[in-house]
Amino acid sequence: MTNDGWLSKRRALWLMTAVLLTAALLRLPALEQFPPGLHYDGAANVTLAGDIGWRGERPIFISSYTGKEVLFFYLAGGLVRLLGESVFTLRLTSAFVGLLTVAVTYALGREITRHSRLVPLLAAGLLATSFWHLLFSRLGFRVITQPLMQAITLWLLLRGVRVWLDGQRPWRIFAAAGLALGLAGHTYLAVRLFPLLILLAAVPLLPRWRELWRPLALTLAMALLILAPLLYYFATHPEAFWVRIGQVGGDGLTLGESIWRSLLMFGWRGDPYMRFNLPDMPLFNPLWAVLGVGGC
After folding, report:
1. Which of 11, 123, 150, 239 is the most exposed place for a label (fewest CB within 10 A)?
2. Considering just the CA atoms, what is the radius of gyration of the chain in Å?
3. Which pLDDT belongs to residue 75?
4. Cα–Cα distance between 285 and 270 in angstroms, integer?
5. DSSP letters along 146-159, please?
């Protein structure tokens, strides 16, 4: 039984199927035509995917084009081997990642709410129709892999902690969470703040740290194992770690101004650059913004 009343498991399955079909209908048709044109970053990404898929490149980190993490390009390179080197193949990779993210959002929502199917369905539906996620699911940029790996990490961590505190010992779940966390480090530079956010979210678990330190240590060890080649690369090429951060942060804004603009993005004014947005459109419409602020 759930607290949703009318929303049985069967109905939730049908509704989630409808959400995924909607997400697919928005992401898959006319991938080569929309978004129109090909930005030079997209053209570079086609070449990088082809380097991995056809020309035998196996980078830990791509130093060219201001530096790029590699997970997306290995995924795209795999499709290149099957479908050939093209804009379509690159964007199809993004579309598949976007669809998987919608599905994982429902799983994560179920793990968070536990007794609700409606809230996870709403979350998945919102992501399926979200303009920013739809756009990046069609562009062929590596950033689309970041929300996927973050969602998988959180889903596995929450499930592992819950089951562990219930008296079971799901070591494989914690190992898988570490694998996902490590792979998240190979998605996009903004993910470097993700471990800090996990630590902040884990503050309520401090009273039970004696019970949880061993499985969480396994998660950390697995993540560091997956990240070790990248960390070594950054240690020996420190400029690769900082160059893109310096470019993104070099717009003359103070930290406070940057935070304020980021907050406005959620419900008031978004990115003015039409390459990534309808100019100035916020992330959420007024209704969703109010519900988000209210914790609904």
Report:
1. 239
2. 20
3. 98
4. 11
5. HHHHHHHHHHHHHH
User: Which residue, chain included where needed, has tokens 């980190």?
Assistant: 61
- Report the share of the chain in percent with pLDDT over 90: 74
**CB contact set of 190 (below 8 Å; sequence gap of 6+):** 143, 146
Q: What letter would DSSP give residue 68?
A: B
Phi/psi-derived region of residue 140, left when phi > 0, alpha when psi is between -120 and 50, beta in every other case: left
Rounded to 5°, the CA angle 94-158-160 comes to: 110
CA angle 273, 277, 281 (to 5 degrees): 100
Write down the H helix ranges in 54-144: 71-83, 87-113, 118-129, 131-139
3-state secondary structure of 214: helix
The rounded distance, in Å, linking the Cα atoms of 215 and 281 is: 42
In DSSP terms, 62 is beta-bridged to 68
Q: Report cis status (omega within 30 of 0) of the bond before 215.
A: no
Instruction: Report the chain's mean pLDDT, rounded to a whole number.
Output: 92
* 234 touches 251 (CB < 8 A): no
CA angle 296, 149, 80 (to 5 degrees): 130
pLDDT at residue 1 above 80?
no
Alpha carbon distance 107, 120 (integer Å): 7
Give residue 63's identity as a one-letter amino acid code: S
165, 215 Cβ separation under 8 angstroms: no
> What 8-state DSSP symbol labels residue 273?
-
Distance CA 66, CA 85 (A): 22
Amino acid 146 reads Q
Tokens at 50, concatenated: 């082809």
pLDDT tens for 135-152 read: 999 999 999 999 999 999
pLDDT at 254 over 90: no
